[in-house]
Specification:
Elements (H helix, E strand, L loop, with lengths): L1 E9 L6 E9 L4 E5 L6 H8 L7 E6 L2 E2 L5 H11 E4 L11 H5 L1 H5 L7 H13 L15 H13 L5 E5 L7 H18 L2 E5 L11 E6 L2 E2 L1
Parallel strand pairs: 3-8, 3-9, 6-7, 7-8
Antiparallel strand pairs: 1-2, 1-4, 4-5, 9-10
Helix pairs in contact: 6-7
Amino acid sequence: MIHVEQVEFAYARGGFQLRVPDLRVARGERVAVVGPSGSGKSTLLRLLGGILVPARGTVRVADTAVGSLPERARRAFRATRIGYVFQEFELLDYLDVLDNILLPYRLTGALRLDTAARDNARALLASVGLAGFESRALASLSHGERQRVAVCRALVASPAVVLADEPTGSLDPDSKVAALELLFERTRSLDATLLVVTHDHAHLDRFDRVVPFRAGAPA
């Protein structure tokens, strides 16, 4: 489902460089990526999601060479095939909770925004303890509540791959377990691949595999 081969990436301002000779993740596999801050974990997710494009090498996700797609096609691919939980959430303040979750449907015509999609979004909210929050403004939500909304948005379009950057970092212990259970249960039901960047080592034993990163490369 994911194959990164001979990938090199560097930010324009210099300094950090990421090198991944070979990384493969199977369909349905649940993988945790761990390592110190600045080791390249979030950069790897952004390459997999087509937000960044490698200078060299190939990034394949769901049989698609993501880095070879033009920008508009990468956005459409991300909306339809990839669920992404951003570390900073990337929610839109001018939209209410339900419309934030349904945002992938508004980004591409390949997804049909209908009653079933709205019902699915409401069910996801209920599963993370936010039933009745559909019309709430983002400004009224706590940091942890925003994080749970971001997790729901990543899952709403039934993606083939879910990429989650510190999805439990701001949650209390009970909410942390609920968010992980939601990610595990939904990806299992979809036979989707799950790749989670995390500093939370308490739950690593629940993943199929742990990939350590150090100094811009897999350790």
